[in-house]
Amino acid sequence: MNHRFHTRVPRTLAIVVPVVAILAGAACSTADTPVANASSASSTTAAVPPSSPDDSAVITENRLSADAAVKAAAAALAKCRADGLGFVTVSVVDRGGNVIAMVRGDNAAQHTVEASREKAYTSAAFGADTTDLSARTKGDGSTIADLPGTLFLAGGVTLKSGSSSIAGIGVGGAPDGMQDHACASAGREAIASSLG
Q: How far apart are CA 182 and CA 171, in angstroms?
């Protein structure tokens, strides 16, 4: 019985030892592989700009406060009333065209609601007063005037924080667009010092 045991051990070792050597060799070559890949990985990542602590998938946006929007709308309507044009609508919107504040003057026609909002959006989105933008609507074929939800008539003014457009004021309903513009400008002036 002992004789059988002794003869099996060398045979088992003869099989096990080469298998262990193969596994050890594979482990060593695998250990070398990350080093080779590390150099190729570093050359790949070298093309990607290094991230800074300020990199983020979330950004902040400057927005006009509701209080400032209400103040601007009230000042614009007050100017129109003082000029005998109390039948206008004033809209203050953010850059996306979302209404922050709106006031519809006494006897303002229904079409003034949408006209004031579209003028406000146009000035906010383009970062310029609609009086300055109207020249860009001229020409053969399609122009920016064909963009849905925009209105390139006088009466929309942009509100900026620094150099960035953050909102717009639109006035609609006066017999002349330049009167709408004067009222919207009065709304802008009412909050200009707080825009930064």
A: 9
> What CA–CA distance (Å, rounded) separates 103 from 87?
11
Question: What does the pLDDT average to over 136-159?
Answer: 92
What is each CA distance from 28 to 16, 20, 23, 31, 32, in whole angstroms?
18, 12, 9, 5, 6
In the chain the first and final C-alpha atoms are separated, in Å, by 98
Under 8 Å between Cβ of 89 and 171: yes
Residue whose C-alpha is closest to residue 95's, from 114, 122, 73: 122
Query: What integer pLDDT is reported at residue 54 of this predicted model?
Result: 66
Using CA atoms in the order 85, 86, 89, 94, what is the torsion angle rounded to 10 degrees? Answer: 90
Q: How confident is the model at residue 14 (pLDDT cuts 50, 70, 90)?
A: low
Average pLDDT over residues 26-49: 48
